[in-house]
Amino acid sequence: MSPLRLSAALALTLSLATAALAACGARPATGPYRRLSIVASTDVYGDIAREIGGSAVDVRSLISSPNQDPHAYEANGHDELAIAKADVVIKNGGGYDDFMDTLLASAGSKAPTLDAVQLSGKSAASGGQLNEHVFYDFATVRKLVARLVTTLSAADPSYRSAFARNGVVFTAELSALERTEALIRRQSRGTGVLVTEPVPLYLLSACGLRNRTPAPFSAAVEAGTGVPPSVLRRTLGLLAARSVKLLVYNEQTAGPETHQVIAAARSHAIPIVGVTETLPPGRTYVAWMTRNLAAVRAALSTTV
Asked: What digits encode the pLDDT tens for the residues 171-220?
């Protein structure tokens, strides 16, 4: 090939490569690339951010261990530094991860902050308390994903199309989870369920299950204040009378009262499902929720 033709061929190849990169939403290689920094309060939100941001983001989840309780987490200087440098911050809100508000204030962060509870539009029922565990509510997660796509696109427009595509894929996966909820709802609507804490209630409600847990019981277990004897007797009575067909407990905060209701459920052959507030090792958000729904469906299929 002549030098002239070789030069033209190389130019054409480079042109096509540049066009392909642009079509994928990648930045042109005109200088060092700095990924967007996202700080999330827990690995639940960290995983969602990673799914939407892809290779364009670096994500740090302040809580990523089942041994860490968001309600009692004590932030440190490394966390504050991460918040100060973050391009986007994601928190649960609703009193779940108040340490994030402290960090944002002390770091003087001006980064866009996505508050899942605020996005959910949920509020406490009259005379009741807000269930802040909105990551078990797929409608809320759908809103968070939409806001995350918008926020990341504003922070890095060169990846706008990639963020949008990732959002579409993730939303489709949420739709699949919602279809499973609808299937359980058709099969088990109105079935009574007992929970040790309100953690999974949004998911269980979407499955058509009726929460029959005495409110003082789950509130005391969640707060770690000890369950009054009369409330514990009433709760154990529901299991003895088989007024509930499923027990769902929080594996990460299993105290004495939780062990008592688990033992009672076993003695009365009532199925038991454990749930968590952070991602199990090696699981993505969608895989985690898929497993939760599969466990609930399997447990209900054994009831008579």
From this structure: 999 999 999 999 999 999 999 999 999 999 999 999 999 999 999 999 89
CB within 8 Å of 203: residues ≥ 6 apart = 136, 137, 181, 289, 292, 293, 296
In tens, the pLDDT along 31-74 reads: 456 899 999 999 999 999 999 999 999 999 999 887 777 877 88
**Those residues with Cβ within 8 angstroms of residue 301's Cβ, 6 or more apart along the chain or in another chain:** none
The CATH H-level (homologous superfamily) assignment of domain 189-301 is: Nitrogenase molybdenum iron protein domain (3.40.50.1980)
Taking the model in full, what pTM does it have?
Answer: 0.87
Query: Which superfamily is assigned to 36-176 in CATH?
Result: Nitrogenase molybdenum iron protein domain (3.40.50.1980)
Of the candidates 61, 75, 140, which has an alpha carbon nearest to the alpha carbon of residue 104? Answer: 75
Say which residues have a Cβ less than 8 Å from residue 158's Cβ, sequence separation at least 6: 25, 26, 27, 28
Residue range(s) in the chain whose domain bears CATH number 3.40.50.1980: 36-176, 189-301
